[in-house]
Amino acid sequence: MHRAVPPDHADEFAPAPRRRFRPLRWMGRWLRFLLLRVLIAAFGLVVMFALINPPTTLTILQASRDYPIVQRKWTRMQDIAPVMARSVVAAEDANFCRHWGFDMVEIRRVIASGRSGGASTITQQVVKNTYLWQGRSWVRKAAEAVLTPAVEAVWTKRRILEVYLNVAEFGPGVFGIHAAAAHHFDTTPDALTPTQAARLAAVLPSPKKRSPAAASKRSRSIADGAATIARDGRDGCFR
Fold it and tell me: What is the CA radius of gyration of the chain?
């Protein structure tokens, strides 16, 4: 004979309700977990390359498949003529010492003019050239937007410019200022003249289409801009 279960204790003997499998919730948790790991890994690379030189980049690896010879040799900032640093700042990012990775003044100017580009800073270019790939996809732009302030927070401005000068392309298969100085002018980075520095900076950001072999209106403007940056002290953050 079965004993009746008192009403007050009936719930103790009831079977536990089965949990329903919710695929969207599971996917959300998995994506959050993955995103967290990606962010941790990315920040780790930012810290790592603040201390050690990037061994290569995706752009350089791609170039090694496109060209029989890829020229590149790392050069320390103290072994690069100061006028070369001022020239690339004059050419690519005149407000380099004044922004935190994004030049909001230039961005607003580009938006007001209706142009689709032209406000990329040297820090953004370093992030793209060092960590990411070439192209205009939204995924790459989103990654660049996350990594740029991280690089600005961890690296010094001088380090940002040093990496930029060593990973930038100055001609088909010619990467970094050491290879550029040797290839185009048969000299070394520390011996570059103001004219040579301006001509090299003038090929950016279209090194496959432009040549530093002769002076141009752009190179003369860059030379003037580099001299102005030296006079007004806008090179203080990387001098």
Answer: 26
